[in-house]
Amino acid sequence: MYAIVEIAGHQFKVEKDQKVFVNRLATEEGKTVSFDNVLLLADGDKVTVGAPAITGAQVGAKVLKHLKGDKVIVFKKKRRKGYRVKNGHRQSLTEILIENIVASGAKPAAKAEKATPVKEVKKAEPKKADAPKAEAKPAAKKEKASQDLSSLTVAELREMAKAKEITGYSSMKKAELIAALS
Description:
Elements: E1 2-7, E2 10-15, E3 19-23, E4 32-35, E5 38-43, E6 46-49, E7 58-78, E8 83-102, H1 131-146, H2 154-163, H3 174-181
């Protein structure tokens, strides 16, 4: 008896007591896993094909160990250009042992639900009166006026000159703006 089952995005032809290397599974070593996505079952001359999967069929396996595959060298070159890139890659694998193949009557495996973070809904707080904001702006201007004018930038001095309605501030230099503002 054999089955074609989809494991970690790949299709494998498996039999009982067969060892298979699959892409890394998020299961600890020694634990058992079951795969519900059985695409084909063959028992002697009797072949059952799913559309796309067979309902009630299941393949049980035990995780033996996690390992890395052989290194694959990726070498890129463009002739006469001096372009050469060498990269290596080792695929993360899991070795599993197929323990049983159930043709029908298997309970569907409980899919691990992803822990979705509970979003806290922030309630809109009533807006405070605009009076504190309006008071903060004149206080900031008073602080600017009390500062030494030479420590301000030309742009800030021009804004102050514009606020005081000084004419010709756009062509004034920094020293002239300080003299006009004081």
